[in-house]
Amino acid sequence: KTALVCADTFRAGAFDQLKQNATKARIPFYGSYTESDPLVIAVDGVETFRKDNFELIVVDTSG
User: Fold this and answer.
1) What is the DSSP letter of 13?
2) What is the rounded CA–CA span in Å between residue 37 and residue 20?
3) ∠ CA 22-36-61 to the nearest 5 degrees?
4) 51 exposed, middle or buried (CB, 10 Å; 0-12, 13-18, 19+)?
5) 8 Å CB contact between 14 and 59
6) Burial of 49 by CB count in 10 Å (0-12 exposed, 13-18 middle, 19+ buried)?
7) Residue environment code for 22-48, b if the CB has 16+ CB neighbours within 10 A, otherwise e
8) CA separation for the pair 28, 46 (Å, rounded)
């Protein structure tokens, strides 16, 4: 199982673009409109998907 985490808080529209593509591909997605710290988002997303036994968790960052 694969999942995506959007930890790109720098690029405008990154969250919406990744969410839209994940939805089209039917891949579970995690991100936050309110959290500004990418590390917090990445850790929360990975922990969330690990609890659900996802094997591959891709974290998208601004780098």
Assistant:
1) T
2) 22
3) 45
4) exposed
5) no
6) buried
7) beeeeebbbbbeeeeebeebbebbbee
8) 12
Residue at token pair 């405008």: 12
* pTM given for the model: 0.90
The encoded tokens of residue 38 equal 């990418």
Token pair of 15, please?
């969250």
Which residues, including other chains, have CB under 8 Å from residue 29's CB and lie 6 or more apart? Answer: 3, 4, 5, 6, 18, 19, 22, 23
User: Per-domain residue ranges for the chain?
Assistant: 2-60
2-57 per-position pLDDT tens digit = 999 999 999 888 999 999 999 999 999 999 999 999 999 999 999 999 999 999 99
